[in-house]
Amino acid sequence: MAWTYDAIIGFSNGMLKGVELKKNKFKYLNLLDASLAQNNLSIYDENKVIITTSKKMLLYDLQKKKMCKKYIIRESGNIIGVFKKDNVLIAGVDNGMVVIKPIKQTKIASEKISTGSHLSCIREVLTLDKFATGGNENPLKIWDLETKKVEFTAKSPKPDMLQLKLPCYVSDIQFFNNNKAVVAHRHGVVDLHDPLSSQRRPVASCKAENTGFVSLRTMPDYSDYEVIVGSSKGCIYHYDFRGRSTLPVKTFRGSTGSVKSVSCINYLNQMHVISISLDSHIRLHDLNSGKLTMQDYIVGKPYALLIK
């Protein structure tokens, strides 16, 4: 990417800040002042990002530092996620609709796909023309962009020992290089699914007690079985699906607010975990030792983190 900074932070009040990792400190560059309530941030190309509000998708030019295009979604719900694929923008709406909007030919009507009610997450499958959706009692589904049909629907976990139905509330979805899907749930479970197999239930699961998961990141260049998960109570967990235990390999501590976004970044030639949380902090943890390397207070409530 053509960014001169290592990450971009989006704030709920509309601010955008570029972040550079200097030795023992964060350096910030103001990209956009507080202007409108934002709820999602994603990459458009090497010079632009997509900012979404409840009804609009805005293209923001990072070099010119201004909005360059606007798209409106005419749905009854609010946008919960968006990504660019070829010549279209694909937006998920919390009423369960996925809207496919042409980027250049704005007079062409948008296509719509109904994915089920209470949608909370939509993610692109990077290596294929597919995308995934999930939400509250709306399990992982993988859709084909060309046919607009669902190809994989996850089954709910088996009932517990009292034969009670376990909850399903998808909060985040990511994919490994081998196209296996990993799904974080708000009831503290992270599941590994293999869409190429005949098994619809998770092939592996890990869990944490008394917390929920709100953010998730795979490490595709690092491992096809390890994930970093952010919780609603401020902890960040490192899970490895190859282990026999469902407990985390390590826990990264320091946050006192819900971890809104988490990712991995190279800092001083070592892999680190970078995160933002609702206690208005950005933090950097050493992936191998789990120790807190740096943290800083950032004014405002962050909601999104894009990594170079």
TrEMBL record:
Gene Ontology biological process: ribosomal large subunit biogenesis
SMART domains per UniProt: WD40 (SM00320)
Domain of life: Eukaryota
Gene Ontology CC annotations of this record: nucleolus; preribosome, large subunit precursor
UniProt protein name: WD repeat-containing protein 74
